[in-house]
Amino acid sequence: MQDFSTKWLERIATLPSRYVRPVGSVRFIPQIDGLRFLALYQVLFFHAALRGQRAFDSSIATNKGLSAWLSHGTAGVELFFFISGFIVSAPFIAGKSVNWSDFVWKRISRIHPPYFITLVIFFVALLIYTPGPEAQAFHHDTSPLWQSFAASCFYLHGLIFNVSPRINPPLWSLEIEMQFYLIFPAIIYSYLLIKNFFVRIIFSAIVILLSGIFHAGAGVLWKGFDYTVISYFYMFVSGMAVCDIVNRFDFMNRADSVLFDVFCLIGFLGFIGGGIFYNASKVDTLLYFGGFMFRMSAIILLFFGAIRGRISRKIFAIPWLAFLGSACYSIYLTHVPLMQLLAVLFAKIFPPTSQFNAWLWGWVLLIPCVTACGVIFHIYVERVFMDHRWPKIFWNKYLS
Question: Which tens digits make up the pLDDT trace of 227-268?
Fold first, then answer.
């Protein structure tokens, strides 16, 4: 029995080296996955604390009491959007020849199958079991579940129903990602039409500012605006602009600097603090605008610190952080439904006794469980689709 346990502990310890992210058209940068780790666990800490406090008292809103001091998960989502803008635009800005049909196929063939698989699993689960009032997002919309499923299949739930997907609420962000991928060819083509680097950066700053102003005001006119790519356009564009700066000045290959460690620390504190400020900022349009512009600035500092800081660069390249960052899609896809189920089960065994205790309860009990499940899904499901040739491989292996 001891040999068996030792063997499994050794296998777990070697996961980061055995499941390295496959290299695509852009070289592997472990710090990027380290940043994905930060974005993911900022979201997980937010959602786990919410499940904990709802297990304590389901009537507590996220903008009341202690919950108002949670760093809102939107900050993590914004970091994801920034990274997407950076990564997707990198080969184009570097001047590499990219086949558009290959570009589209690689994105869809990798993203959609794991998404659809989890969607079907959780749809069937919800047909069997209806969550209680603690699953607040599930009860925001009263439309039939099959309609919610159909809309989610095509990444249209937010646009149609003006609420987060009932089956898996966090996937509103993936709907926005897919919108970005659809319009990206026009965006990058327009961006690169501007040949002068400094003009491109000034143009990007203007677009970011206008996008931010529009984001701050348009949501008041149309609730569904929050579920459009235009709502978070400033984050995608900031990622593209930073990619342009990194490429122009060869930031990845420059010497490390303690100054960038300072940038990283300031950026991290601003990232977390901006998330805490999220609920308070929504009471005023100007404060709200300042809040997400502040978080965007913090994310940019955090990024530069992660790739150039003498200490930060090593921290964000820690193998386990990079590995969990590479598995972020699987963990993100599965974490809320699993947290919901686990919170109900754990609350029957040892319910939390206070709101603060409920946060700790969620962090200690829920996060390790959803991490483990997400990693398993990543290894046995998501990684199958990381090779864009998977239909051919599947056909040759099982059907030919």
Answer: 999 999 999 999 999 999 999 998 888 889 999 999 999 999
What values do phi and psi take at 352, rounded to 5? -65, 150
Within a domain: residue 147?
yes
Asked, for residue 93, whether it belongs to a domain, the answer is yes
| Residues 245 and 306 sit within 8 Å (Cβ to Cβ) | no
Radius of gyration from C-alpha coordinates of the chain: 21
Domain total in the chain: 1
- Confirm whether 168 is domain-assigned: yes
Contact (CB, 8 A) for 158 and 172:
yes
Q: Which are the contacts of 54, defined by CB distance < 8 A and separation ≥ 6?
A: 60, 134, 136, 343
DSSP E strands, the chain: none
**Domain annotation covers residue 8:** no
pLDDT tens digits along 304-339: 999 999 999 999 999 999 999 999 999 999 999 999
| Lookup result for tokens 């666990």 | 41
pTM of the model: 0.94
- Looking at residue 167, the DSSP 8-state letter turns out to be S
User: What is the span of the domain harbouring residue 202?
Assistant: 27-387
* Residue that has been written with the tokens 């099959």 in this structure: 146
